[in-house]
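Fold these two proteins, one after the other.
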Amino acid sequence: MGYDSVRNDDVDTIYARIQKLQYTLFIINIGTLLISMANFSICLWIRFDLDFWEWIEEIGWYTYWNCMYVVMIAMLLHAANSLLSAFATFTESRALLLTSMVLRVFIWILTLTGAVVICLYGVEESTLLINELNEVFMGLIYKWDSDPRASRVMTMIQEYVGCCGAGGNRYDYINAKKPVPDSCRHPVTGNSYTSTCPQQLAWWLEPWTATLAGSSVAFCAMDVVVIWISTRMRSCIRLMKDN
């Protein structure tokens, strides 16, 4: 009788521990599901923002979209895996928990990769981004008086973000023997913009980049916690079945 009492106490303790881990893991999974879908929605907004979409199509610069696709896919996988983990938690399935943990490792790698590449091509301090945009804008300047679409999109960008030229500001037009356009000047003061278009466009991208990169890093940190909780829960489920 004494042995049975101790054994029952052990079972009750394990069961109570499983319940705590279930509640914790379920809440985390629901939270990550909602946040991942919110980030996926931000990616859709970036992809189909009308002004940005037109600029990208006209200047032929798809690098930022390509980087964003990595984050977008990672967020979709996070959402799907959160559902799997939540279901495994609810059903107390050790096999599904293990499957979710293995998938989480691959998703962790993809998420971290997305955070890195979008920072490389989405912040003002990125030399890679500035150099690439400088080449794009110089190409538009050289085609200024021969391609109406090039001059049109260049005018749109310069007026919208308040910039002038590529890396050399208005001197890019002068060196290319092109007239400095009125869109290089402030509409009220008439002064030339001091910022270059690669710099200003990179600065314009930074809020999107910060949101996606920051949330991706947060997901990477949370995945470590979820794997640890899932491992403990699998152990408790095994102990419960053994008893």
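Now the second one:
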Amino acid sequence: MEYVSPEGLRGDGRRPSDLRRLMCNIGVFEAADGSAYIEHGNTKVFAVVYGPSEPLQATNALHDRLSFHCEYSVAPFSSDAYRERLRRRGGSGDKEMELLITKTFEAAVMSELYPRSAVTICIEILQSDGGNAMAAINAANLALIDAGIAMKDFVVSCTAACIDGTCVLDPNQLEANAQGAELVIASMPKSGKIVSTQMASRIHVDNFKPLLDLAQSGCADLYSQFQKEVTKRTSQLSVAVDGGN
């Protein structure tokens, strides 16, 4: 199967360095302290944040910083591939993804400001078409910002893959099924620091740098779009507060 045509176009019409269409909303669930909904192409994710608050169990409290609890699940109806995995393995949780998300935000949140407190991040993949990890991290980031939790910087995640010798940005599920090398990074754009990575399959060291550069360029593009949404949300809250006075 040809994933990039001789004209340089992918199956969905994008160039190798193009992101999928992004749509996001912040503050979509009033019962939570923070929430966000994101669509990366046909991948749709909902994230909510509860806290900071007193841990449900005192033994889980950390005396000098915030403790994190993450719940990640993929809806059984999200994709045919997931339904098959569910049939073979059972269950809907993904402990590896929960650990990745927890470690990512432990590095980005100013945890020392919330001693003996806990925050819970709940993420649901409503529709899966590739890039679940990046979409989950990006949705969680916006939900944490909506909850007013102090962070060192934005956390922006993006995926790049090497398919048949060509590096492509933000692969969809069809491209992910090619089983080429796939790299997911989460970075803090202002400092350029990469706070977490996830690699699927092997890649020659000479090809890794172009793949990493492509993922970082995707993070930069996403960051500018997320900034606009956060500014829009802040303006809405400011108007609501002024209107109440």
